[in-house]
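Example 9 (inverse folding). The structure is encoded as follows.
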């Protein structure tokens, strides 16, 4: 969850001058503004659909909030107490989807790592305040337990875990899941041209009039746009970076994307952008590839991705050949490094 007033958008919708704008509005969920643009529909359908989308986003947020009362906090309380808890099919499906994405990423995307995020203070509303990092002994204890999604068992509608260091947190996945659910609402309402931008990450269907939706990818170290890309029908664009959510302590910067292999913030990349047809996969993959750093092509292959762009910690832009064919670089002077996904 990210607070709108304290974050920077990684992606921004670019509009061409002289064209009729889509009907647009903003709603608020997941601690951020959600921009919704729908093209070519009448006012009545637009207003009806916006109401349904607001219910969808608030419903997902209420279900999966990591530290305010939710089904997620109830599950985590049960795991910590060594108890089982009943879960319905909808909850089980989301957990299984997160488990699959974690497995595909070799657990670099690790939704079971909530206690590690709690140690670092990222699962609280004042995550941005200066503070010392956790003690090494606390990190070592967490690493020794090695909690992953494979420690979650769901049988006959009952969920439990034998690893009490497991704490679920879907911050690297819930936004994508919610966007996919919102697109389902649009399509159920027979809407074919729309874009949903949640805190800078988005999924689009159809196009804007006679042209594709065009978006800008934020530069992780400078004001403005690094590159632009046209989003094809039914594509998602998600980014992760070290510039959105972090705290500083004694001159050191601690970003919120943690490496479950070390217990410390990942430091091999500045930003990652992923294009995929599924927003939940794009969301999880952006986190996993950021953690992977230079090993991102292998992880991308395991997650069945084709379009990836990553800026390394020393400012080198790397991308897959398929991504290179899609993006237009705006604020990068050198030739990007092309890396095959395999």
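The amino acid assigned to each position is listed next.
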């Amino acid at each position: 969850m990210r607070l709108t007033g304290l974050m920077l958008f990684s992606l921004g919708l670019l509009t061409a001058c002289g064209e009729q704008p889509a009907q647009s509005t903003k709603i608020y969920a997941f601690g951020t503004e959600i921009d919704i643009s729908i093209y070519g529909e009448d006012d009545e359908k637009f207003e009806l659909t916006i109401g349904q989308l607001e219910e969808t986003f608030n419903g997902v947020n209420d279900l999966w909030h990591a530290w305010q009362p939710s089904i997620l906090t109830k599950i985590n309380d049960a795991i910590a107490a060594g108890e089982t808890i009943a879960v319905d099919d909808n909850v089980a499906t989301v957990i299984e989807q997160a488990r699959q994405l974690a497995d595909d990423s070799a657990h670099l995307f690790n939704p079971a790592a909530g206690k590690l995020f709690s140690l670092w203070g990222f699962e609280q509303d004042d995550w941005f305040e200066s503070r010392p990092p956790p003690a090494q002994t606390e990190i070592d204890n967490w690493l020794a337990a090695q909690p992953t999604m494979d420690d979650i068992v769901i049988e006959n509608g009952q969920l439990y875990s034998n690893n009490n260091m497991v704490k679920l947190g879907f911050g690297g996945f819930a936004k994508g899941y919610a966007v996919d659910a919102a697109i389902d609402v649009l399509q159920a309402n027979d809407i074919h041209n729309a874009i949903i931008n949640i805190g800078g990450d988005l999924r689009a269907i159809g196009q804007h009039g006679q042209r594709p939706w065009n978006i800008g990818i934020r530069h992780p170290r400078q004001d403005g746009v690094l590159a632009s890309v046209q989003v094809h029908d039914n594509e998602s664009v998600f980014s992760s970076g070290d510039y959105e959510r972090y705290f500083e302590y004694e001159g050191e910067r601690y970003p919120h994307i943690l490496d479950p292999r070390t217990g410390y913030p990942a430091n091999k990349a500045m930003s990652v952008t992923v294009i995929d047809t599924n927003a939940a996969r794009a969301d999880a993959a952006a986190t996993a590839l950021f953690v992977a750093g230079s090993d991102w092509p292998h992880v991308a292959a395991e997650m069945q991705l084709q379009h990836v762009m990553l800026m390394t910690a020393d400012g080198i832009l790397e991308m897959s050949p398929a991504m290179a064919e899609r993006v237009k670089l705006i604020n990068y002077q050198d030739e990007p490094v092309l890396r095959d996904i395999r």
